[in-house]
Amino acid sequence: MAFGFGFNKQKVLSAAEKYVQQGKIQNAISEYEKVTKADPKDLTVTNTIGDLYSRLGEADKATECFKTVGDAYANQGFTVKAIAMYKKISKLKPSLESVLKLAELYTQQGLFNDARAQYLQVAEEFLKSGELDNAVRIFQKILEMDPENTSMRVRLAEVYVRLGKKEEAWKIFSAAAETLRSKGSLSGAEEVLQRMLTLDPGNSYALLMQGRNLLESGDAEAADHDAALRHRVHLTIRAAERRHQQRTAAEASKAMYDSALSKRGFGPVTTEIVDAPPFYYAEDYHQQYLAQNPFGYCGLGGTGVSCPVGSGVAAH
Question: What is the pLDDT of residue 81?
Answer without folding.
Answer: 94
